[in-house]
Every structure is written in C-alpha cells, then in structure tokens.
Design brief:
The chain is mainly α. Helix content is 76%, strand content 0%. The protein has 38 helices and no strands.
Length: 941
C-alpha cells in the first residue's frame, strides 16, 4: 500500500466497515460504474462484491468474476447478470461477449431458447451437445431457425419422440415425427401430441400409410354403428337434467360428428341434427325459464336490498349518532317505490323496530358516557405518569447500550463518541423520573462508568482527527495538482475530449472520497480544485454538447425509419415489403446511439411496426396453408374421379365428363408449391391415359372384337379332339360318306374331348350357345373376319364330325339337315322346270336378251295372257320365298356339302326370282331371298 492509500480517509468504497461499503456501492451513479471494478476484484466482503456485480454492465468484467471469484454466490450472481444481458440485449456484440462468459449447460440452454437476438441464440446452440438440452430448444425456442437447427442435431430416438409429442410448432413436430420409428412412441404421439397435424400423421403411420390423404382414403366409407351411438348420445341430451354444460356437450358431439365420422348416412344425419335441435330448444326453454326466475328474483332483490341496507344502517349506527341515522334512513325509506311483496312488509316492520331501538340505544349511551369519562380521567393520569417513567428508563437503557457498543470498536467515529459523551453528561446533570429507586441507582452507576470511559477515548480520537485532517490536506493538494494537469492537457490542441471527461469524473470521485482538511486550509484547497475543475468542465461540456447533437441527429434518423416501417406495416405485398423491412433493420444497426431516455421508446416503436407486419404475414401464411390444403383435397378428389374413368369404354360420355372435370380443375385455386407438380402430373396422366385410348378407340374396339371371337374359337377348339396327321401328299383327310364319320380323338386331345369317343357333357347346348354368341358378335371387316370365321366353323365341323351320335336327331344333325337341303333344292328345280322359264339374263348375250324381251312383250299383249302370266310368276316367287325361309331354318351342315347345295339352291331360285313381277316389295324380297339363299345354314341350331 502506498503513502496516498495509507493516509486516505477510510470512507465510501474504501471504508473499513463492510456495511458502509455496501451502502456506497448503491450510491455510485450510472455514469461512473467503472469505479466498481476494483470492488468486484478485491473487496474482502462477498456481500459487497455481489452488490457491485449486480450493478455492473461490462460483460468482460462479469465473465472474469463468474470464473475467478472465490465465493460461489458471487460467481452465481455474475453468471446471472451475464445471462440477463445475453437474453435481453439488442446489441449483438454485447450479447456475444456476455455469452462467452457462460459455461453452465442450463444457462446456455436458456439463452438458446429465449435470447432476443437470433444470432446470440444460434451461438448458444452451437455450444450445446446434450440431447435433452437440444430437445428443449427444439420444442420451446423463440426463433424458428434455431428450433430447426436444434432438431437436426438431435440423434436420440426418445428425445425425437418427446419433441414430436410436446412441440406446438407444426414445422418442428412433423420433421421430428418422420424420424420416429418405434410403434409405442408413435401411439403416444397419436394420442397425446400437442400439434394436431403430428397426431394425425402418427395415426396415419400406425395404419401403414405414408400420407394422411391415403389414411383418410383407407378409412371405411361409413361407420353406421358409430353414427348410431352418436345419435343416441344426442338424443340422451334431450333428456339430460344437467343444464350447466349442455351447450358444451352439444357442441362437442357436433364436432365429433363433423370431424371424426368419414361418411354420414343421410337418415342418421337427419336423426342426429333433429336430436341436436331438440336439445337446443330444450336448453333455450330452460334458459328462458331461468331468466324469468332471475328477473323475478332481481326485482325482489331490487326492492329488498335498499330496505335491508337501511335497516342494517340503523342497526349498525353508533349510539351517539343513532337518532340522526334513523331520521336520515326514514327520509330515504319514504322515497323508495312501493311494493306489495310479503318480504317488503317484513322489512318495513324490521325498520320500525330498528328506529325505536336506535333511540333507546342513544339515550343509554349518553348516561354511560358521563360515568365513563369520570373514571377514565383518573386512570389516564396514572397511566401517563407510569408511561413517562418507563419511557425514560427505556431511553436511558438505549443510550447506554449505544455508548457501550461504540467503546469496543478499534476505530469508532469521533462524532458519535462526542455526541454520546454530551448526552451522558446532560442526563447525569438532570436525571429524569424513573419507575423505581432501584432503576434510578442502577442507571446512575452505569452512566457514570460510561462517562469515565468515554472522556479519554474522545480526547485520543480528537488528536487522531487533527492528524488525519493534516494528512487529508496533502491528498487534496495532490488532487488539485492532478486536476490542474488535466486542465492544461485538455486545453492543448488535438486533446481528446472524451478522455478529459473520464478523467474529470475520476478525480471528482477521488475528491469526494478524500476526507476533510484542516479548517484553515479547507476553503483555499477547494477553490484551487474548483478553478481547475471548471476549466476541464468547459471542455467536457462542449464534448457532451456535441454528443447530444449527434444523438439528436441519430434520433431523427431512427424516427424516420420508424415512420417508414409504420407505413410498410399494413402492406400485403409480403415479399417486397419483407425485403424492404429487412433493409430498414440493417440500416437501423448502422445508426449510432441516442440519449438513454429515448433509446428504449424509439426502439420499441420501430420493433412494434416490424412485428406488426411479420405477424400479419404469418397470419396470411396460415390462411394460405389452410386454403392450399382445401384445394389439394379437392384436386385429389378430381384425380380419383378421373382415374376411375380412365379405363371406361363409354367414349362420348366419359370424354364429356373428363372435360367437365378439367374445367372444375381450372376453377380450383393453387396448392402448396412442393405438391403442385405432383398432383398436376397425376391428374394430367389420368386424363392423357383416357384420351390416348379415345384416339385409338377404333383399333381398341377391333382388337376387343377379335379377342372375343378368338376366345370363342378357343372354347370350340377345346371341345374338338386332336386333328389327325395329314396324308403324305398333304391333302386333308376326307370325312366318311355323308360327312358324318369322324376319327377317334388322339392322345393329348384338348380338355373338351373325352379321348374315348364319348361326347362331352352338354355338347349340343354348348354348341348352340356358341353359334348364338357368334351371331350376336359385332361385325368386323372381311379381311379380319374371314380367317376367324374359317377357324370357328372349322373347329365346329371337327366337333360335330367327332361326335355324330351326340348331335343325331337335333338341329345340329348334319345328315338330316343335308337331306332337307336336297329336298328344298329338288322342289325349286322342279318348280323352275315346270314353268319352262327362259334362262336368266346373266346367261344370255345382249342380242338374245333383247329378243327374249320382245317375245315376252308380244305374249303379254294377248287378252288375258299378261295377267295370267304375272299371277303364275308371283305364285312361283312366293314358293321360292317360303323355300328360302325354310332354308334359313336348317341346322348344321358340313362346309363342303353346304357350299355345293347352297350353289345348287341359288341356281334354282335365281330364274324364278328373275322373272317375278318387278314390284318394289318383290324386288326387295328377291334381294333378300338371294341373300338368304347365299347365306350359310348354320345360323340356327
């Protein structure tokens, strides 16, 4: 310790008494907190250091104390101060410096969760490694970016499940859920998650679906049993005697009906809604009845309340003012409106009784007061005297205790000792009355002993005080010299005004800490110090004025930014306005400080305008997300409808329906950008699939018709036995005479053949059905139909030839049908020969055909000849038509025999039909006959 420190007066921050130093710490002004640095580093008392730490604002010094102080409570206090600075500061450098002094995990977690600045929160997060701490930040972090970064760093499955279950933020809960695979954790999330979207996604995953839309689609279309239970609960509400929460229960049931029932049956919906309406009507009736009852009770209360109050007022009135209170109450009673309620009559009787008792109470109190006053005056005098004596004894005891407390101290204050000595001498000269003689003797002896000890102690301290004042004069001279040097330096060109201002404050504090000088030198030293101080203050005041001017300019700049931010806070152009506000925030950081009294207000104004815009943007984002979700559901429904129509063959109706759905698609609003392409590609793919089929519909129909015929061919071929090997010369094997013989089926015959010559069961019916189906099949071009026709009837021929005994006697009997054909051919040939018809025109040359026409015309000109000839020709044509109709009804005939007989029948019919009268009906009949005669007699079975 140097000489200056040894002779410095022990006062203020350097006082030997810890209590004095503790008080001095609280009196240090805000502008001079740097004076507390030596205290927090070197004060011996932990209480003083804690008090100094609480006032510090220097993060570096606080970090030093938090890591190096010997007392745990001081370190804890410094760490708390650093934590508060890191959480609340709006200056990034200060916050990071405060964060650098924190090392405890729980405080770092608190900063990462709740720091006002995102950069400080992220810096604290980087220093965390514990999974529980990261989970806490992910669930409760103030900044979305910090929450996401914390979630990415979590690797523990239990902590991820806890985040998914407890986080209220959808953008945190859903990514955490995607990383959870334990079924037990998924069940807990599905039932207890704070985020409803996470709960729904967990339920969907438990059902084995990746998307909530698939989960919804996988639900049953309707759950009638659940709907009936809800209807019964709703009907039970119409009989419930519990009125208090009836409205809430109705609302809860309706919410379940809307949210949890996937498809509602119409009859149950009507039943449920009617039950809810009945419950509401019943609730409304009860509420109306209760309101009427309450109105009656209210009217009665309004009538009784003032009357009861007047009665209570009179009854509670003190006896001294009871008559006056009764008179005032009666005047007020007369102004009340009349009422015929029995309770009002009872109140009126009570009021009259109260008024009479008030008068009696007043009279009794007057009598009692007079007697009491006489007794109290005597007692009061005795009590006053006794109290005075006790107070004197107590005052003397307190004086002796205070003086005795000063004596053991090594350096008691001189002023206190002198004051105690004066008081002891004054009391010994005129001792006040005391409660007893014993007290008088005891206190007199104690006071004399104190006087004996105080006199030498006071004299010694007075000598010490004179020496101390002499030493203080040397300290003040040194301070005067330093202040004069500072004044001289501040007046030099280029001197730093800020350094002069700091030096001025430091020397002023040292002067205040210095003790008093001797009276003869005190004023001269002060005038010398003050003259130098004024010179420095002039320079310091100019510096402060410049600072005030600069802070004023900064205030105007910040207020201009506030106005711009307030003008942008109501904008709905989210992207551009967000960029503009961020630019304003960046510009705000470049502007210097303003005065302390205005810094908080202007910052709050600027932040309020920014927060207002970003809050509106967040609300709009939530609304747009809801709209996107609804649009996505509508578009998914359209996709499902188009996908259901993509395979339709109703080309015209389906094309119109899909075009209608495409128009509906255009009317639906946008969806989330990440889902837009996928849902559009799905819809367009389903539409393109149908229209690709629609473009190739003719080819598809032809392919379907060919496939239908090929299937029928395969079915008939399955009934036929295996085809025998062809002869060596390649000629097909001829059937037996009459076309009825058939070879036995070879080994490895198709499933329809029995292999032992026995016809399959129901062969005739199956063949007939096959013929009918062949006739009903839609037409094909000749090129496509010819090979299929040949294949079908070839297989048909093989089946009939293989099993002649099975078709014998049926419409498929080839021999019987062949004989009928020959009979019809013979009949028509006989008819043609009997008529001696000329050859048909197709068999004559042009000259012969003209001569034949002339002969027929000349023959027809004879009287009656033309009419008779026409009648014969018409009868012959009718016979041919009947024969053609009978030909069409014939059953199966093998191909070779059928073709020969058909040609024979056609040649026989042609001359008759050729010479028939040329009427439109006969011409059409002739064409039909020719057509029918040329067709295959396989159409009927």
């Amino acid at each position: 310790m140097g000489l200056l420190d040894r002779i410095r007066p022990q006062g203020g921050l350097a006082h030997p008494d810890p209590d004095q130093r503790l008080g001095a710490v609280g009196q240090v002004p805000e502008s001079d907190l740097a004076l507390l640095a030596p205290v927090v580093r070197g004060d011996a008392d932990a209480r003083v250091r804690r008090a100094a730490v609480r006032r510090l604002r220097d993060p570096a010094l606080l970090a030093e104390v938090a890591s190096a102080d010997a007392d745990a409570s001081v370190r804890e206090c410094a760490a708390d101060a650093l934590l508060g600075m890191a959480l609340e500061t709006r200056e990034e450098a200060t916050g990071l410096a405060a964060l650098a002094g924190l090392f405890e995990g729980r405080r770092l977690t608190t900063v990462a969760r709740a720091a006002a600045l995102e950069s400080i929160s992220r810096a604290a997060l980087l220093r965390l490694s514990d999974g529980r701490a990261l989970g806490s930040v992910a669930r409760h972090g103030e900044h979305p970016v910090v929450r996401l970064e914390a979630l990415e760093r979590i690797s523990e499955a239990d902590e991820l499940a806890l985040v998914a279950r407890k986080s209220p933020h959808k953008e945190i809960a859903l990514p955490a859920l995607e990383r959870v695979s334990d079924p037990g954790a998924l069940e807990e999330i599905a039932s207890r998650a704070r985020c409803r979207a996470a709960a729904r996604r967990a339920r969907a995953r438990l059902r084995g679906q990746d998307e909530e839309e698939s989960a919804e689609a996988a639900r049953p279309a309707t759950d009638r049993a659940a709907q009936e239970r809800l209807c019964e609960e709703a009907e039970a509400l119409t009989r419930s005697p519990d009125w208090d929460d009836l409205a809430a229960r109705i609302a809860r049931l309706q919410e379940i009906w809307i949210e949890d029932v996937p498809e509602v049956d119409e009859d149950l919906d009507d039943r449920f809604q009617e039950a809810c309406r009945d419950a509401r009507r019943r609730l409304a009736a009860w509420q109306a009845e209760r309101a009427a009852s309450e109105r009656r009770e209210q009217a009665l209360r309004l009538a009784l309340a003032p009357r009861q109050e007047l009665c209570e007022h009179v009854e509670a009135a003190p006896a001294a003012t009871a008559p006056q209170a009764a008179q005032e109450a009666r005047s007020a009673w007369e102004l009340l409106p009349p009422s015929d309620a029995p309770e009002v009559a009872e109140a009126e009787a009570r009021f009259e009784t109260s008024c009479r008792e008030a008068t009696l109470r007043h009279e009794r109190s007057l009598q009692e007061a007079e007697a009491e006053q006489a007794r109290s005056r005597a007692v009061q005098a005795a009590q006053d005297e006794e109290r005075t004596k006790k107070a004197n004894a107590l005052r003397l005891e307190r004086l002796c205790a205070q003086a005795e407390k000063l004596l053991p101290s090594s350096s008691p204050p001189l002023a206190k000792l002198e004051r105690a000595l004066r008081e002891v001498r004054g009391i010994l000269l005129a001792l006040p009355p005391l409660p007893s003689q014993k007290d008088h003797d005891r206190l007199t002896q104690r006071l004399k002993a104190l006087q004996t000890e105080l006199v030498p102690r006071v004299q010694a301290l007075r000598d010490t005080d004179r020496f101390q004042r002499w030493a203080n004069a040397a300290v003040q001279e040194e301070l005067c010299a330093r202040m004069e040097d500072l004044a001289r330096l501040s007046e030099e060109p280029g001197a730093e005004a800020a350094a002069a201002s700091r030096g001025l404050r430091e020397l002023m504090e040292l002067w205040k800490a210095a003790g008093p000088a001797p009276p003869e030198r005190s004023l001269s030293l002060w005038n010398r110090f003050k003259a130098a101080r004024d010179r420095v203050r002039e320079r310091s005041d100019a510096f402060h004025a410049q600072q005030v001017e600069e802070q004023g300019r900064n205030l105007l700049l910040k207020e201009a930014l506030c106005e711009k931010a307030e003008a942008l806070s109501g904008s709905s152009d989210w992207l551009k306005t967000s960029e503009a506000i961020q630019a304003l925030q960046a510009e705000w950081k470049t502007i210097g400080p303003v005065s302390r009294g205005q810094e908080k207000a202007v910052w709050e104004r600027f932040r309020k305008a920014c927060d207002q815009f970003f809050a509106r943007r967040q609300e709009d984002l939530v609304r747009r997300k809801e709209e996107w979700s609804k649009n996505l559901a509508a578009k998914v429904l359209l996709c499902e409808r188009v996908e259901a129509l993509a395979g339709s063959r109703d080309w015209k109706g389906t094309a119109a329906e899909i075009k209608k759905l495409q128009a509906e698609w255009k009317g639906i609003g946008p969806v989330k950008r990440s889902q837009s392409d996928a849902i559009w590609n799905r819809f367009r793919g389903a539409c393109d699939k149908f229209f690709e089929h629609y473009k190739n519909r003719d080819v598809i129909e032809i392919q379907e018709r060919i496939a239908e015929r090929e299937a029928l061919c395969l079915e008939i071929e399955a009934l036929a036995p295996a085809v025998p090997a062809a002869p060596a010369d390649g000629a097909p094997a001829a059937p037996a005479e009459g076309g009825t013989a058939a070879d036995p089926p070879a080994a490895g015959a198709p499933a329809g053949a029995t292999g032992d010559g026995t016809a399959p069961e129901g062969l005739v019916g199956r063949l007939r059905e096959a013929l009918e189906r062949w006739q009903r099949m839609r037409g094909l071009s000749h090129e496509a139909a010819a090979p299929l026709r040949a294949r079908f009837f070839g297989a048909f021929d093989r089946v009939v030839q293989a099993y002649p005994h099975a078709v014998q006697g049926t419409s498929l009997d080839p021999e019987a049908n062949r004989r009928r054909m020959e009979d019809l051919c013979a009949r028509i040939e006989k008819l043609s020969a009997g008529r001696e018809l000329a050859p048909v025109d197709g068999d004559l040359s042009p000259g012969a055909r003209l001569a034949s026409m002339w002969r027929e015309a000349l023959a027809a000109n004879t009287m009656g000849g033309r009419v008779a000839e026409e009648a014969r020709l018409r009868a012959a044509a009718e016979e041919v038509k009947k024969a053609q109709a009978a030909w069409q009804r014939l059953g199966y005939v093998p191909e070779a025999a059928r073709r020969a007989l058909a040609d024979r029948f056609e040649r026989a019919c042609r001359p008759i039909l050729q010479h028939a009268p040329a009427t439109p009906r006969q011409e059409s009949g002739g064409r039909g006959a020719r057509d029918r005669s040329g067709s295959s007699p396989r159409g009927r079975a």
